Amino acid sequence: MLTDRIQYDVTIKTPDVDLEWFVQNLEGPKREKLVQAIINTANSGKLKMYDVMTNKPMTPAELKERSTRKELITLQRAYAPYEDYDSIVSTELQLSDITRVRFLEEWYLNEKNGLITKKVIAICPLVESYTETGELRGYNPLFWLSFEKNFPLEAK
Fold this sequence. Notes:
two-stranded antiparallel sheet
């Protein structure tokens, strides 16, 4: 075993439209299929889903709650006296919002031939997060979807 835990992010949809489709990207239908499979598996309960910060189990209902963003916005009436009013806008997560995935893996090195093999322990979809001015702030993790019965793993 080279390492029992390594974690890294993979861009599956690049924001740079000038790059070839295979650079930091998965082809559209394949990306959609992967993301849909992750979300469907999480919602089905076939694999356990965990909170990224606490590693506590999550339910599909908790995922739905986290996948809905509510924002308070101030608008102005279109008629006199043109007063301001507040409105709550609710936005549901779209599959296209998931542009990266985070992998948690075990890596093995075959010292005879230099071959590295990997075992995926868990996968985490990441959603872009923007500032009020539209600048990319970073990526928010939604949940861990674990392929292992014991999660989080104890170091070996």
